[in-house]
Structure formats: C-alpha cells, structure tokens
Amino acid sequence: MSEKIVGILGGGQLGRMLAASASLLNVKVVILDAGDNGPAKQILAPSEPRLAHIDGSFADPQKIRELASKVDVLTVEIEHVDAAALEDIQTTTGLQIHPSPSAIRIIQDKFRQKEHLASNHLPVSDFVAVDSTVESISAAATQLGLPLMLKSRTLAYDGRGNFVLRELSQVPEAIAFLNNRPLYAEKWVPFTNEIAVMVVRTVDGELQSYPVAETVHKDNICHLVFAPLRSRDASLSQRARTIAENAIRSFTGAGIFGVEMFLMQDGKIFINEIAPRPHNSGHYTIEACETSQYENHLRAILALPLGSTALKVPSSAMLNLIGYSANMSEITAITTAALAVPGASVHLYGKAECRKGRKMGHITVVAPSDAELRARLRPLLQALPDATPAEVDRFAPPPPVPGAGFADAHPLVGIIMGSDSDLPVMLPAARILDRFGVPYELTIVSAHRTPDRLVEYARSAAARGLRTVIAGAGGAAHLPGMVAAMTALPVIGVPVKGSTLDGVDSLHSIVQMPRGIPVATVAINNGVNAGLLAVRILSAGIPGLIGAMDEYMKEMEQEVLGKVEKLQEVGWEKYVVKKT
Ligand SMILES: *[C@@H]1O[C@H](CO)[C@@H](O)[C@H](O)[C@H]1NC(C)=O
C-alpha cells in the first residue's frame, strides 16, 4: 500500500491500535518507547533487523533522532514528546513529521493552546496565566470568579494536573496538589454535557470530521462514549463539527486530532482541549465508522486518500475498562460478560499489570437502534465492580414494560396526537409496536393549540433518534402535514373520526398534501395500520423486523384460512348463526 516506513513516538494503547491498522495495510512501523514489551511493540514483530523497535523515552532527543534515521514519516501517539527535537529534525533533515512539531509544541502547553485558540477566534472560556503563589491565584480568582479551574500547563492528562478551587482558603492546598508546576487558571464552565469530534487532515490540507460523540467522564477519566450524539437541538451536531474543523484548520500538519468540547445549557459550545493524535473519544470509530481514526491517521500521514468518516451502524457506545485495583480478574470478568453481548467488541491493551485508574482496555458496542444499544450495554455496566443501580439505569435504562403506558427513553417511533380524545384510535398503533418490540414514545402535540411545541417536536425528532412519526388528528387535521414539513423523517397520518363529518374531513386534510411534502395516510381510525406501516418502514434498516412482519402476515393468513375451513365444515347458514 505504501513503501514508506512510519515511526511512532510512544507505544501505548493508541500506538497499539495504530499498529493494528498499519498491519492491515502492510505498512511497516517502528516504535520508540521504554521497554521491549509495551502495548504497541507486543503486536508488531519487526520484519527486518533494521526496523527493530527502539527502547527509550519519546522525550529523549537522542532516541528520537535514532528513530528518525530509520523511517520516512514520524508521528506521535502522545503529545508529551520533545517538540524542539522534532523541530530540529524537520529543519535539518526535511523528514515528514505529522502533526507538525509546531502544532505539537502549541498543544502540549495547555496555556499556549488556549492562547492559540482564542487568537484564532475559536470559542474558549476566559483564562489567565498564574504563578504558583497565593497572590497570583487569588488575583485570578478575583478576575474569573469562583469556582476556578486550575490546570497544569504541561504533562497533564486524564484530569491529572487539574484542581477545582472552590474557595480562596484552598489555595495552599491547590499549590501543593499541583506540585508547583507551571499553571494557568480557567473560568469555570458550568457545562451540561461533554462532546468530542475527531478531525483528520491530509498533507494537502483536505479536512474531514467524524460524527459528534457524547463523552461521559468519571473521576476525570473518560468512562463512556456514545455516538452519534442525540440532542433536542437539531443544529448542534453541525455546529460542533464546524467548530472542531475550524480549530484543526488553525494548526499545521496532517493526521488525526481530537477536539473535546463543553456544551452549555443554552446550546453554546466551548472548546476544552485538543489532542494532536488519536483519542479515546474516537475509539468507537473502529467498529462504528467506515474508516477508523487510526486508519485515517495513517492514510493522512502517508498521503493516501482519506476514507469515509461516516457511521456504518445506527448506534454505538464505548466503555473504557479502567483498572479498579491490582486485580486483573475484575477486568476479565467484564470482558467475559462482553463476549455474550451481541455487537460488543473487546479491546485489551496487553498492559503488564493492572492498577487503579489505569486504562486496561475498552469495549465497543454497536446496535441497530439506541434502545437496543442501551439494552446491550446494560449487562456490561452491571458487571463493573463499582456499579450502582442508579448509574446503570442512567446510562442503560431498562425498557418500559409493554402495555404499562410509559415512553421508552430511546424511541424509534413517535406517536403523537392532536388531543387526548384521539387516544383510543392511536393506542392500537402502540400495541402493534409493543408486539414487534419497537421502542416508542406517545404524547400530545396539537398543531393548533401548541404550535411552538409542534415546531420543537418536529425539528428535533431526527436528532433525538426517532426514525418514524405516527401523527393522528381529527377535523381540519394539520398535525401530520406540519410535522412532515419540519422533519425529513417519514410521517404516517391517521385520520381520526369526528362527530360532524365522520372523519372524511380529516382524511382529506391529511391525504391531500401538496407536492413535495408526502404524508403516508392510513384509513380513518386505523391505528393498527399506522403501527404496521411504521414497522415496515423501520424494517428497511432493521432486517430482523422483516422476518417478524412475515410471521405476522402468516398468522393473519392462518386466521382467515381457519375461517374458510370452518365455513365449509358447518355451512354458511349455521356459521352466521354461530357468529351472532
Ligand atoms: C479479584 O477479582 C475477582 C473478580 O471480581 C474476585 O472474584 C476475586 O476474589 C478478586 N481477588 C482478590 C484477591 O481480591
């Protein structure tokens, strides 16, 4: 695929996954890291002696030069490398180094990174440089307010090197905790969610972003990642991708970058941090996207065409396996549970020993729907040694009991009606969805009495994960048509029989949609057909539903054939008497 030899500074789990992608493309890789048996080196036997891995630190200029002399392209799996040595190699030898040493130099110092982002008009929270003194930190607290985020400028990751200053009396404690390291202070960002976008850029500057993921942290370490992002704000994903792309455009060099962002209640986005390398929030791309972050990084730095960043599954989640103690069996218990879960892929990093807080591996789960994804994730969350029922329910709620009358937290179908009086007509649709195990929600949205709610519902339907809407209304029925006008999802209209015109008014209102905005219209009061049509629409993307629909139709056929037999057996005169 490429004759070029790739050198990687760092041989941890990110290097291991890069190496795995490289081996599929038969790209030769040389690793620089301490020891002979790190996660990356374990899976990459050198194909010839001159490509032997190097034992040494990725921060050691001498060792970096040794690696540079063996390879055609240098890259990193960690940003805490000797950027000056890389800059020197680039100027003296002209070696391809990606991302550029200058980008690494800016990003590895979080204060310079923030300055760079702010000067490029990218959204970041207010920040100031501080010294490790009571006066300097107190002045920053006066300027930016409390609580105040104190961060080490360098060598900090997974929340290490961060201190949340809640009151001024904590300043000495903060200085001690942060070990007199170079610091900066950041205005507290009261975010509601954390999101992340991977962005890849070629040597020619072509740029592509991955779908937005939601990240969930626990004890400052990434715990769970969900992709794609679900939101009531239909514009959010595109806004986040644009910000991430613009952020990466401001740096030089090719390869993959991770952009971590904060999402505020009002929909505002702040960039938290940039990683100039593959990132934990992009592990999901291995199983969930057409090209993983690792393969696209290699393609980018080797000047090969980029692969598609699109999702190839409807829903995915990544669970980090963080060491709970020195007891490796705790991790094994979770991975063993994962082997029984459909759509779950186990990644173990081959670390020599387990330690509390150490990233030992991860599990990616993919599924045909969010509801199915959470059902698959549930046993894995339950297998965590520190699982609490509340936390399991928060991320993987049990599906509602069919017929109990409550919405699924991750519905595929929205059943809406103009008025509660339509409920008897719409309930049969719900019963059909129950029968096929299709997750749904059911609620009242009136086109005439709650127009704002209608707009919000229709505009956010697809972004929340709905795939079909069933809308029932009587009289001058506008609900199905207005919903269809504001969402790209298929809409099924159910004309509801009123008192004056017997539902014909509603039928005509729904069926006579203008060209361009179709509404699939079922017979008056036929909620059953609306439910069945929704299942058929979903079955186009969920093959299991086609089989289930076949079964349903066979049952109907058997029912009618049974009546034919009975009619023959007892004669129609008796059959009629029997029936009445
Ligand atoms: C290690 O973890 C396993 C699985 O959770 C448990 O059964 C075992 O008792 C633990 N061993 C020690 C020494 O704590």
UniProtKB/TrEMBL annotation:
- Occurrences of domain ATP-grasp (ranges): 114-302
Pathway as given in its UniProt record: Purine metabolism; IMP biosynthesis via de novo pathway; 5-amino-1-(5-phospho-D-ribosyl)imidazole-4-carboxylate from 5-amino-1-(5-phospho-D-ribosyl)imidazole (carboxylase route): step 1/1
HAMAP family per record: PurE_classI, PurK
Organismal lineage? Eukaryota, Fungi, Dikarya, Basidiomycota, Agaricomycotina
- What keywords are annotated for this sequence in UniProt? ATP-binding, Decarboxylase, Lyase, Nucleotide-binding, Purine biosynthesis
Q: What is its EC number?
A: 4.1.1.21
Query: Which reaction does this enzyme catalyse, per its entry?
Result: 5-amino-1-(5-phospho-D-ribosyl)imidazole-4-carboxylate + H(+) = 5-amino-1-(5-phospho-beta-D-ribosyl)imidazole + CO2
Single GO biological process annotation from the record = 'de novo' IMP biosynthetic process
The UniProt entry, under PANTHER family, shows: PHOSPHORIBOSYLAMINOIMIDAZOLE CARBOXYLASE (PTHR11609:SF5), PURINE BIOSYNTHESIS PROTEIN 6/7, PUR6/7 (PTHR11609)
What are the recorded GO MF terms, alphabetically?
A: ATP binding; metal ion binding; phosphoribosylaminoimidazole carboxylase activity
The Swiss-Prot or TrEMBL record describes its family as follows: In the C-terminal section; belongs to the AIR carboxylase family. Class I subfamily.
In terms of InterPro entries, this protein maps to:
Ade2_fungi/plant, ATP-grasp, ATP-grasp_carboxylate-amine, ATP_grasp_subdomain_1, PreATP-grasp_dom_sf, PurE_ClassI, PurE_dom, PurK
- What's its top-level EC category? lyase
Q: What is this protein called?
A: Phosphoribosylaminoimidazole carboxylase
